[in-house]
Amino acid sequence: MGISFHHAPSKIANIIVYLTLVSGNLYSTFGGSENQDSPYNSKHRSYITPAYWTFYLWTLTHFLLGGMVIYQWFNDKVHEAVGWHFVLVSIINAIWLALWTSGHTILAFIALIFATGAVSFIYYRLKETHAADTTGEVLFLHLPFSLYHAWIFVLLIVNLFAVVSPVKEDGPSTFQTVLAIAGLAFVASTVIGYIEYKKGDVAGSLVLAWYLFGVFAQQETPAIHWSALGLGVVVALYTLKPFAARLVGRRSGETAPLLG
Asked: What angle do CA 48, 49, 53 make, to 5 degrees?
């Protein structure tokens, strides 16, 4: 398939905001002043903040989104499914990042609500009306937004807890411990939505498990530490359900999709 210049303005805009998104994340991590806070190794911690390496998931997501802004020139389905919404997502994401790094956690949370809504719009549009027909569409259209959707949901919960239940020098209270476990259980429970209602979205489910294992590695309070591990294992095992369904489907002459 040759290069298509249809909808060139939105395609060019996608490239610009993508480069802005990547450069903003790199600057927040490696640049800036001492007063700025990076979301990858944040000063604003709670009792469900995961280990710093958990945020390396952004590297994979950025790589795949980079593939998308190239792939869009060869497949107009990217524009049909995403349109100008990726531009909106990137702008709101940049606003959230600026607010977070400058210490405005409440405003950052509000911005993240809008970012989550914008990503969710793309995600549901892909799942409901633009099923993947080729490997390229799976890798550079569906997969990046599956990862993005699950991860921005995780960030929303992490940001919320940074506001309402920050870390204390003397450790968490009983209420904070219970609240943290409830928050982790809520995150884990969303795997049901990814597996049961989103055509077996394994990628999104694995993001949840990755996050929970990151919390297990980071948090030292025993109740939170072991709860995160247990929930992570449950989510990881539940993620295998589409593969089991696919295996059964093969035996019965049917198949179950893994990414839509």
From this structure: 135
Residue 73's CB is within 10 A of a number of other CB atoms, namely: 18
Coil vs helix vs strand at 166: strand
* Token digits of residue 233: 């294992």
Per residue in 170-216, pLDDT (tens digit) is 999 999 999 999 999 999 999 999 998 877 899 999 999 999 999 99
DSSP SS3 for 36: coil
Helix (H, G, I), strand (E, B) or coil at 149: helix
Closest CA to 14 of 116, 143, 122: 122
Q: Are 44 and 211 in contact (CB under 8 A)?
A: no
Tens of pLDDT along 44-64? 899 999 999 999 898 999 999
DSSP code of residue 51:
P
Distance between CA 33 and CA 108 in Å, rounded?
Answer: 19
Distance CA 115, CA 124 (A): 14
Rounded Cα gap, residues 164 and 184, in angstroms: 15
Question: Structure pTM?
Answer: 0.90
Structure tokens at 160: 């919320």
